[in-house]
Structures are given as C-alpha cells and as structure tokens.
Amino acid sequence: MLRALAAGLSARAAARRLRRDGAVILRGLLDPDEVDALREAIDRAWVDDSLGAIASLPPDATNVPARADLRSLPGVRLLDPHWSLPPVRRALLHPRIVGCLSAVYGTAPLLFQSQSFEDSPRAVRHRDDAYLALSPNRSLMAVWLALEPVGPGQGELEYVPGSHRIPAYAFGEGRTWFTPPLDDGTAHQRYVDFLSLECHQRGLSARRFHARPGDAIIWDGALVHGSAPMVGAVRSRRSLVAHYCAANVSPRYLQEGAGRLAPAAEQRARFSTGFYPAEQISPPG
Ligand SMILES: O=C(O)CCC(=O)C(=O)O
Asked: Domains in the chain, ordered, with CATH?
C-alpha cells in the first residue's frame, strides 16, 4: 500500500517505496507561505512581459509568449518555469525531492523539464517514458505538486501503483517512444489500449491523488497515470509537473545541442531548459 510519506521518512525509504510501488507521496512538502510565493511568481509570469515566459497552448502544444488573456484556456500551461522563477526552482529542487531521486539514481538528479498548469490537463492514461525519450529510459522520474486543494471531480491526477513493471510497448521498429508522424493517432490508441489491458490482466487499479496545497507525488516514468474526469463545478486545479533524469543521462534536446544546462556549481542538483536563453536563468536561490 502507498502511504503518505511523513517528513521524517528517510530519502532511502522514499526511494524504496518509489521503486516498489512506482510512486511515493510527499505530504506537506511545502508550507503555505512557500505555496503562496510559488503562486505569486506564476501569476507574475502570466502578466509581466519582461519575464519572457512561454506558454503552451492546447490542442497542438503551440508555444507562444505568455499573456494574461491566454491563461483561462483549458489545458494551457507555462513551460519550464523552473528556469526563470526562483520559487519554482526551489520547490522542484526541494531537498526531499532531490534526496529521494539521488537515492534512486545513486547520483544527483537533473531537472530537465517543468510545466505549470491552471486546470487539469485531461491526460489519457499513459506513461511518460513513451514521450520523453532518455537513454537509459529507466531513469525518467516525475513530480506533481499541488498549488491549491485538489479534490474529487477536479480532473485530479490518477495513477496505477505497480504498473511501472509492465514491459515497454514497442510502437514500431523496436521504438519504445511515440514518434509522430511515424506514429499516428491509431498507433497511439493501440498503446493506450495495451496499457489498459496490461493493468487489467495484472489486477492493477488506479488511485486518485487528492491533495492539499504543498502536497506532492513522485512517480516512475514507466508508471501508468492520467487525469480523472472533470465532473465537478471547480475547474481550477493549479499544479506543477516536473521531469527528471539522472545527471549522467541527457534528455534528447541536450543530446541534439538544443537547450541549456545550468552551471554545475549553482545547485545541489542540475537543471536545464529546452526553451529559454541562458540569460533568462534566475539567480541561484
Ligand atoms: O496532472 C495530471 O492530471 C496529469 C499529468 C500528466 O499526466 C503528466 O504530466 O504526464
């Protein structure tokens, strides 16, 4: 059974739970003041052009400069807020996250991607390692952090403990990641159906993560997860999602010479961006 991780649980114990269940919950990772600072930084990024924040617009993930009037679009998100917003970086490189991931990796983590959501992304059940290709792929981990209360009907995060042991799905020619245009919508649906059947055959069922502001969950990149249906009156569901790999593994954008890696001396963990220029990095803090 997954249990809430008390502040006292060691990084090693959290890492063991993450390996065993594919997820570990970190209740009360941030206190209310820290959550307020995060929310204010994100609020500013939506209105202050000088911060140069980039938003990704549904349904095609078009990237545009963030603007206040875009913020209410369903499924909209800010890209890599950890690069230029210090409270976001502090939260996503929180010692409890870094400690747990370092214990899993046996080396420091690299925070290589983050997103700030205003509402549920309405994600179908999937595994992140089909979209974020790493070599070796097993090093992919994700963090989801609540910035406001998230309860039933709000399109909350749902995940299937134990599903990280399901073998990788081959899209074609042995590729374990989804690659449009080689893979089309039908190929994607086959992948979604494969995950659903495998979970069913293994008797694995989904849990929903109902969170207070400042609660977080870390999951394995191979864990099946998605968004529960939005059926309630409350549409707002502010959250941060971040992706990490071991610092000795490169995400594809760095392998391809795109993006930037922050100087090693800056933090106890590395971080990088696929979107922003080097000068937009916020000072260490
Ligand atoms: O926040 C959610 O509901 C789902 C997030 C998700 O699926 C992801 O970031 O991969």
From this structure: 4-280 (2.60.120.620)
Q: Is the peptide bond before 59 cis (omega within 30 degrees of 0)?
A: yes
CB 102 within 8 A of CB 141: no
Q: Tens of pLDDT along 10-46?
A: 999 999 999 999 999 999 999 999 999 999 999 999 9
Q: Does pTM top 0.85 for this prediction?
A: yes
- The secondary structure of residue 175, as a DSSP letter, is B
Q: β-pairing, 109-119 with 236-246?
A: antiparallel
What span, in angstroms and rounded, lies between the C-alpha atoms of 49 and 84? Answer: 13
Cα–Cα distance, 45 to 91 (Å, whole number): 16
Contact 77 CB / ligand 1 (< 6 Å) = no
Q: Does the beta carbon of 157 lie inside 6 Å of ligand 1?
A: yes
H/E stretch holding 47 reads helix 32-47
168: closest CA among 160, 180, 176?
176
Q: Which range has the top average pLDDT, 50-54, 114-118, 133-137?
A: 114-118
- Residue tagged 């919508």 (tokens): 185
**Residue 107 CA to ligand 1 centre (angstroms):** 26
Ligand 1, atom nearest to 241 Cα: 9
Ligand 1 proximity of 53 Cβ (cutoff 6 Å): no
- pLDDT, one tens digit per residue, over 131-163 is 998 877 679 999 999 999 999 999 999 999 999
CA of 212 to the centre of ligand 1 (A): 17
CA-CA distance, 96 to 112, in Å (whole number)? 18
Burial 172-193 (b: 16+ CB within 10 A, else e): eeeeebbeeeebeeeebeebbe
